Amino acid sequence: MKIAVLTKAIPSYESSIRIDSSEKWIDESIVNFVVNESDSYALEEALQIKEQLNDDSEVVVVIMGSESNTSKVLKDGLAKGADRGIFIKNDTSETDPLSIAKIFSEQLKEESFDLILSGLQSDDLGSGQTGVLIGELLNMSTATLGIETKMEDGKIKVKRELESGWFQWVTLPFPASVSIQSGINEPRYPSLKGIMGAKRKEVKLVDAQSVSDSKQEFIKLFLPKTEKVTEKIEGTVDDIVSRMIDILKNNLKVI
User: Fold this and answer.
1) Burial class for 77, CB neighbours closer than 10 Å (0-12, 13-18, 19+)
2) Which end of the chain has the smaller Cβ count within 10 Å, N or C?
3) Nearest CA to 218 among 76, 36, 47, 20?
4) Which residues lie across from 5 on neighbouring strands?
5) What pLDDT, on a 0 to 100 scale, did the predictor assign at position 143?
6) Which residues of the chain have a pLDDT value below 50?
7) Positive or negative: CA dihedral 83, 89, 94, 98
8) Total domain count, the chain
């Protein structure tokens, strides 16, 4: 079994966020990058599947971005038990989900993975589309919102979380692409042996293929303004109600 785990480096919640001069992305020079939360669960699920199969299965961490932002996250994945890594070098701030999926797919198709696991969504952009799009581009069976997996009869069974407390079991033939929900397991910590061993593991460096037909682009990025405004509404009951509805609809935009 050959398993790829897509991992993303995102700004940590403790980082001070500042918009760069283009006003289309953040200033990454002052940001500390960490592994995306749901990707940690995807990696742990891949490692557990490998351990359950007890064969010559391989887990490969795949990450895209600039070297300065991703190196720590990639080393963390190798230290936890991934067999090797693939680093797709891309210094641009690509945000279009389809373009990102195409870049990944170009590299993944050469490896002929049986299973691709990805986090449900990234905590910075939150599109939640990469795993699904890659499955479509590589002609794989696909499932989302996975909260449990089982290997049975040469296929993978995935328990999916639906709305209103409902769940669904689906059986997928290989090759398959599954996006993993946070909380599916308990991610392990890197051991000292794993940290030392990560230095000797193979990391394949490839350049991202340029994509010219992006369907999505950030026009302007800005930080939310924090301000407090108090308005005292006076008048008749009808006047007060009318003004409150106007504020909720036009100012706060909650109705």
Assistant:
1) buried
2) C
3) 20
4) 61, 117
5) 95
6) none
7) negative
8) 1
